[in-house]
Structure formats: C-alpha cells, structure tokens
Design a protein that fits this description.
Largest sheet: 5 strands, mixed
CATH topology of the largest domain: Serine Threonine Protein Phosphatase 5, Tetratricopeptide repeat
Number of strands: 5
Shape: elongated
Number of helices: 11
Low-confidence stretches: none
Structural class: alpha/beta
Length: 215
C-alpha cells in the first residue's frame, strides 16, 4: 500500500515521516511506460518489508515543485529518505532483486541492532559480524576509554547528546595524544560521523578538521 503526496503534503508525508521509518518515494507520471512496469515491483517489495519501509508516490506532472526540488530529471525516479534526509536513489525500471537490495540498504543490519543494545557483549558480537562497523568500533572504544582523562570529557559530552561539544573536545585532545590514543579518538569520531550520517553538517566539518589534525 502506498500514499500519494503532493507539493503541499510532501514534507509531512515524507521528510517528517522518515524520522520514524524509512520512506521510499516513487516519482511517476501517467504517460510513463517504465513507471507502470516498476510500480507493481516496488509495491510488492515494500510490502514484503512488513512495515519496515513505507512507500509514497508523487505524480510529477501534478507536483512540479517537489519534482524540481529533488532534481527529478527522468522517471521513474525512486528516492529514499531516512532521518529526514535523502539517503539513496535510482532512476528507471529495475528488476525485483535490485529493488530488494535497495530496500535492504535502508534497514539496520544485525550489527546495527546489536550496537543499539549498547552492552559490551553485543558490541563485540557486532564487530564479529562486521569488523569495520564504525559505530561498533566507536562504541567499544568509548567503553574501553571511559576512564581515560583525555577522552573522558569528550565522551561524557557525546553521551549527554552534546555532539558538537563532544567532537570539539575530542579534537582538542588530539594535540597531546600519543599514537594509540590518537587512533582511539579517530575511531570514536568516525563512529559519530556514521551515526549522524555522512552528509550531516557536523560530519562534514569535523571530518575535514580531523583529517587536517591527523595528516
């Protein structure tokens, strides 16, 4: 089942809704043959997620403003939103396997779910599944470094939700850190970037500053 969105309702139906559940938007038009081919495929694929992903359809002829806003140049254009942001997209009619793979990329992996539990055993299990999982590596570093006087203030700020202050404190700690500590700081900051999303303004700014400080 899908919901139709308009220029007027798009922000509520897609952007705000995606803060609770990933939303896939199918931009289409009546005259578009490939759109008719894709529609039953994407509807069935989304239905198979049992509510983990929601589908919204936008008629580009009737809603030109939102189509222009998201640079829809060819249809069908499928764009995925998560946490209020556009995170992935594809254009054209594609087979079911490709749509399924696209949807899986929007859902948390087993390692993601383990990291969310927060305990050390779950975090170590997540790293067994995905050794390079940035959030898991950062979480383990936080646990192992909780009493470190250099990382402590930054970690405390992060745990309190003061993300920018935490990143700033960690960046300050790099100046006096030895090689091992610098790597732990890097792991924590990279994990924060992953949690925020790589296109988040704080990720962009502090990733650049971290690289400058390290290299």
């Amino acid at each position: 089942m899908s919901v139709d969105a308009t220029d007027a309702t798009f922000d509520d139906a897609v952007v705000e809704r995606s803060k609770a559940v990933p939303v896939v938007v199918d931009f289409w038009a009546d005259w578009c043959g490939p759109c008719r081919q894709l529609t039953p495929i994407i509807e069935a694929a989304v239905a198979a997620t049992d509510g983990a992903v929601e589908l919204v359809k936008v008629d580009v002829d009737q809603n030109p403003r939102v189509a222009m806003r998201y640079r829809v140049q060819g249809i069908p254009a499928v764009k995925a939103f998560r946490d209020g942001r556009l995170v992935d997209e594809f254009t054209g009619a594609v087979p079911r396997a490709s749509v399924d793979s696209f949807l899986r990329g929007l859902l948390p992996s087993e390692a993601d779910r383990l990291v969310e539990q927060g305990d050390e055993a779950s975090i170590r299990k997540a790293l067994e599944l995905e050794p390079d999982h940035p959030a898991a590596r950062a979480a383990l570093t936080r646990l192992e470094s909780a009493g470190d006087p250099a990382l402590g203030p930054g970690l405390t700020a992060l745990e309190a939700g003061e993300t920018e202050r935490g990143l700033e404190l960690l960046l300050d700690a790099l100046a006096e850190a030895d090689t091992a500590l610098r790597d732990r700081i890097r792991q924590v900051m990279v994990g924060v970037f992953a949690d925020l999303g790589q296109d988040h303004p704080l990720s962009s700014e502090y990733r650049r500053r971290l690289a400058a400080a390290l290299y």
